[in-house]
Amino acid sequence: MGPEHPTPPDAGRVTILLTSPRTAPGLLSFSAWDRLRSAGAVLAVDPDPAWLEAFAAAGVTPEDVSAVPVAERAGRLVEDACAGQELVWWGSEDGDPGLTDALAEHLSRRAVVPGSQPPPEVEVLTGSYDVPGSRLLDLVAVMDTLRSPGGCPWDGEQTHTSLLPYLLEEAHEVIEAVESGDPAHVQEELGDLLLQVVFHARVAEEEAGFGIDEVAAGIVAKLIRRHPHVFGDGEAESAQDVEVSWEALKAAEKAGRQGFEGIPATLPALARAQKMIGRLSRAGADLDEAVEKAADGDELAAALLRLVVLSRVSGQDAEATLRAALGRLVPPSQ
User: Fold this and answer.
1) Which helix (H) or strand (E) holds 125?
2) What is the DSSP letter of 285?
3) CATH number corresponding to 13-126
4) CA torsion sign, 83 to 88 to 92 to 93?
5) Where is the NTP pyrophosphohydrolase MazG-like domain (predicted)?
């Protein structure tokens, strides 16, 4: 009878755990936490301290293998799994460059070398996903880098005032993109406009004590407050009902506002006229009388204001209507 050979242990498993870097520490799926807790070893590269706290609370102690070359990390995963261990690789934010290739090489070698123990099972498990809007966190982080020491000199010296021309320009470019009907163009220009909002919020964080969170919280509170038919016990059966309710709530909030206060003087004259005529109309003013008084005998001014009144009565946007007509003008022949 020949010498007995020990029976090789059943191969374990390597789990590559993928998570979203935009998910708060500790937020993982049940299956991900279950795998982490039951693993014989959890390997990671430079794990985030906040995640280490979450791991510790769950009784998980990752081993930091930052100093180990990629090929050796892959070899460790395969060899320990072949010895029957269950291992979890906690993926890093940079995607662990080179690890999958190194793993494939080790697994292939075991698959083709005669007499080698079969390679272990390798599973990719997604433990968390991006939630809608999470990419906004990336934008905030990039802006923070640009404005921080060692960032971009140009971005670092901008102020609210210096940024105003870009804000105005990007708003007009969004309008142009929407009217072009090109979704890709709209997406790009909305991104440029969003940058301006985040940029101004970052400047305010340094100078005025509020940042993007306070800006977002303010508009969230306003939207909830102005939509009682959605978030409260209000009622609205049509878009017109919503508009009436919105204006009433806005008027109550701005009870101390006088005259045309709140209508920006920097609006284009036609758009500003619409706002002012709308304010007069909601206040019950006689628009014909208001137009004649404002024109002060200037027939052209009276005609222009009457056209704004006409646009309101007909439910049209005078600014958009004129802009569309300008787009249809035929240029002179060269």
Assistant:
1) strand 121-126
2) -
3) 3.40.1010.10
4) positive
5) 158-231
The greatest distance separating any two alpha carbons of the chain, rounded to the nearest whole angstrom, comes to 122
- Rounded distance, CA 198 to CA 212, Å? 7
Give the Cα separation of 190 and 195 in Å (integer).
Answer: 9
The model's pTM is 0.69
Do the Cβ atoms of 82 and 110 come closer than 8 Å?
yes
DSSP helix/strand/coil, 304: helix
Report the distance separating Cα 182 and Cα 20, nearest Å.
Answer: 31
- With b for 16 or more beta-carbon neighbours within 10 A and e for fewer, the 171-181 pattern comes to eebbeebeeee
Q: How far is CA 205 from CA 140, 144, 160, 273, 306, in A?
A: 12, 10, 12, 34, 45
Give CATH 3.40.1010.10 domain extents, the chain.
13-126
